[in-house]
């Protein structure tokens, strides 16, 4: 998913800004994404694919994932907010659908998909939901959203990363948000 693809981008020389969660400031109309935790958790097969089978990444305590700590590697972790250029949603909207590449979503399609990723939806009051919905709507009026194909074969992740870069070349920026 997100971390697997982010690890491929790290391997290609792009810095990580966040692995699991981004914060959008409703007062920032250009939608700059602040850096989060300088690290990521990777499944064993992804760690082997990206860093080779002899990598020395430490295993996590709670699960069988490896942890890649980027805190001492400033070139691999974004230290300042970056402008958000696009939103990429992983996997098909319909689990049985055949995916045929990256496709741009309409703002309405993207809003429906992104609204599922609300942070702690059960703990937010109506006003907080209203602000969140308005923020997402404003984001999607200015930032394009794309649907990524499902990639069942990890070996295809480098190809998908190139397809994303080709898509981003059209909008001339490389800061993205990856969401499952």
Quick overview:
The chain has 180 residues and is of the alpha/beta class. It has five helices and eight strands; from the N terminus they run αββαββββααβαβ.
Question: How does this structure look, described?
Answer:
- The protein is of the alpha/beta class.
- It contains five helices and eight strands.
- It has helices at residues 2-11, 44-51, 107-114, 126-142, 157-169, and strands spanning 32-33, 39-42, 66-69, 82-83, 86-89, 103-105, 145-147, 176-179.
- The protein has a four-stranded mixed beta sheet with strand order 6-7-5-8.
- Helix 1 (2-11) crosses helix 5 (157-169) and helix 3 (107-114) runs antiparallel to helix 4.
- The longest helix has 17 residues, at 126-142.
- It is globular, with a radius of gyration of 17 Å.
- The relative contact order is 0.20.
- Residues 94-98 have low confidence and may be disordered.
In terms of topology, how is this protein built?
Layout: H1 2-11, E1 32-33, E2 39-42, H2 44-51, E3 66-69, E4 82-83, E5 86-89, E6 103-105, H3 107-114, H4 126-142, E7 145-147, H5 157-169, E8 176-179
Parallel strand pairs: 5-7, 5-8
Antiparallel strand pairs: 1-4, 2-3, 6-7
Helix pairs in contact: 1-2, 1-5, 3-4
């Amino acid at each position: 998913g997100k971390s697997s693809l982010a690890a491929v981008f790290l391997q290609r020389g792009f810095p990580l800004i966040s692995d699991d969660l981004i914060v959008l400031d409703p007062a920032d109309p250009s939608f700059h994404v602040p850096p989060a935790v300088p690290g990521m958790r990777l499944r064993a097969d992804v760690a082997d694919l990206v860093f080779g089978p002899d990598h020395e990444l430490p295993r996590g305590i709670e699960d069988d994932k490896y942890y890649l700590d980027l805190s001492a590697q400033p070139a691999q972790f974004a230290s300042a907010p970056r402008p958000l250029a696009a939103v990429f949603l992983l996997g098909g909207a319909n689990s049985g659908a055949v995916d045929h590449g990256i496709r741009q979503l309409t703002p309405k399609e993207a809003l429906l998909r992104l609204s599922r990723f609300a942070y702690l939806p059960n703990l937010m009051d109506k006003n907080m939901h209203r602000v969140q919905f308005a923020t997402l709507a404003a984001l999607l009026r200015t930032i394009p959203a794309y649907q990524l194909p499902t990639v069942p074969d990890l070996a295809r992740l480098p190809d998908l990363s190139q397809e994303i870069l080709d898509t981003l070349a059209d909008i001339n920026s490389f800061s993205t948000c990856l969401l499952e």
